[in-house]
Amino acid sequence: MRILITNDDGINAPGLKVLHAIAEDIAGPKGEVWTVAPAFEQSGVGHCISYTHPMMIAELGPRRFAAEGSPADCVLAGIYDVMNGAPPDLVLSGVNRGNNSAENTLYSGTIGGAMEAALQGLPAIALSQYYGPGNNKLEDPFDAASRHGAATVRAILGAGLDSGADDYRLFYNVNFPPVASPDVKGTQVVTQGFRRDTKFSVEPHHSPSGRKFLWIKGGAQHTPTAKGSDAAANLAGYISVTPMRADLTAHDMLSPLRSSVET
């Protein structure tokens, strides 16, 4: 198997090393793992692409490249340049430092990389490691992802649920709970959650010169979402797996809206 990996934390991020090990396990001794990751951190860029300006790409080693662009850019670069137009069998994005559950999904560059792969018709999985009191002081905060990552990816691939034909292809959002690997209780297939009263905002600061700058500020990350959704599962000690598509249509609202709007 030939696997392309990327992330949004940057080419030198520790989570990318974890993902490389997971990918090598999945690819097997005769497989290939190709890395194309952002030269600098790209957290929060979502599914952004560098549509209006070119990006530099550099080869750092065998099958290892850094691009001055977003994770979605890196997937495009991997497919159409680095891998010489011969697409990979699988794209993995992550392992993100921090969760991409609930509203974080919509901002995540890690998700953006997997989404772009799906739009290219490729199987894709995004992987993220929730941080919390149960793991952020461990020698390896990625312990849960390291120990359970390959098995989780194999289980998803083994389901064989999506051919990718004639529709937006499925991709998968995986979040590992904020606990040490022996404390992981299992895996749950869940919906994307919604953290009530948790929103991104801005926090103003002034530089020594007196100029005003705004920092983007996230909300509380340990607020459980509804039962059967991602953050609730993660905070209960479970790996969450959420099937997703790039289709943003609110299908449940089509009929009510038609009755009011169509003429």
UniProtKB/TrEMBL annotation:
Domain of life, source organism: Bacteria
Which cellular compartments is it found in? Cytoplasm
Q: Which residues bind a divalent metal cation?
A: D8, D9, S43, N96
The record, for InterPro entries, names:
SurE (IPR030048), SurE-like_Pase/nucleotidase (IPR002828), SurE-like_sf (IPR036523)
Annotated Survival protein SurE-like phosphatase/nucleotidase domain residues: 3-196
GO molecular function, one example? 3'-nucleotidase activity
Q: What is the recorded function of this protein according to its Swiss-Prot or TrEMBL entry? A: Nucleotidase that shows phosphatase activity on nucleoside 5'-monophosphates.
Q: What is this protein called?
A: 5'-nucleotidase SurE
